[in-house]
Prior knowledge:
The protein is an alpha+beta fold.
Amino acid sequence: MARTKTTNTKDIVSSSPTIEIETQKPKEFYIPRNYARSQVQPLWAISPNNSSTRKYTSDAIGKLLLHPYSSYKELQNVSNYLLYTSSAYNNFLDYLSNALTWDYVLSCEEVEKVNKTTIENRYIDAAKTVYKINVKAIFSAMLKRVLANGECYFYNLTDNSNSIIVEIDSNICQLAQIDSNNIWRYYINLSFINSANLLELPEEIQTAYKKWIDNGKPKKKVLIDGFELPEYLYPVSDKGFAIFIHMRKTQHDYPYLAHMFEDLNDLESDKTYMNDYIKENNIKLIHMKVPTDKDSGLPLMDKDVMQIYHDSAKEHLPSNVAPLTNPFTVESIALDKSQSTAINLVEHSTKVIMQDSGISDTIFNANSTNGLKYATLADATKLYPLFYFFENFVNLQIKQYKCKIKFLRINYYNQLEWHERFYADVQAGGSRSLFAVTGGIEPYDIINLAKTEKAIGMDDLLEPKINASQQSGIENDNGRPKKKEDKASDSTNKVNEYD
């Protein structure tokens, strides 16, 4: 069903904050677009945006979180900064983005209106198309980018021999509308394109940019999709689609784990503080006591001589050992308690982060198994609504075959349970497709495997062994021995006559 425009585009354009284009350093190695297109089907990012390495303070991050939608770009910069500096943040993103199995079922529409051969051909063509997209490998990488950036703008470069999805720099994009295929479409702001990176963009966007430049960069408004928009806003075709992590129809979105940024930044600061504190308070002292006169208490050595001994000891001692030369008695003071306080500070910060994330700390440090199963299921459940974007994109690619896919709400932590459940359903007349795909293979693989096994006679090569309970009435040498002839006595026969 077609969706109406959910955002007033006039308001978007007029209230749009000025987007600063970061100066990008020259690339050390450049791969032309045509060379990047191969059967490997990579997720190829175009001009990675927000590659910021500027350090942020926790106070600055806290102010950004007061207005996350208007501070989306800075929060994206913080996200990329933490990707470089925080192992905990990377663990969270990897865990969430790789939790889903991306198992899906494929079905045809209007099956009662066409013959069996047509249905079979449509199903196979659709299955092959989805198989070429390589959803199980590509979509996990795309999901990680969406979690880290909050918004991602993709473009489909599929042709007859390749299926590649590329990411467009979000600095030049903004949400436009939801079309009749439920695809979240976006605009390209041609005035934000860096001409040095033009060749990396899809040909459609290159053409629009060159046309805008040739016309003298006009700033007048034109009618696009029923709205008057500046001519520098170019609506990308249905080959482009956007994913917004919070699924709100706004101009831009912010990172999924933004609410944790302040605590993650504090954790890295606390770890640095702990390391410095322990080093500073873990110094050993070598006391060289100067001999003194018993009556006057004055040193019996000249200052110059004492200095020679002190400098000689200092020169030959390790960096964490310091000499102490004086005539006094020195007491040792243990610093274990203060060091323990610094370590506890880091442990406290770690616990706060895990609580804020909503992810069980057992995931990364298996100190118990109680509740781990349900914790992982709850984490994966938070991601299921995002199937909406991926399903709509794939269904658009197979729309011509009148087929649709449906991603199963399954993750790696409960896949086996669902596989066994669907196996039980098959015995009761349930779907064989559900049982097959939860085994980790795609519908196109299922078709090819079944045909291959039939062609090579796999059933004859791997003949199943029949158990005793299945031998009733079967005359063969497998299973239990044949029933012996009854040699009952005469008295027994007489008794049986009354049966």
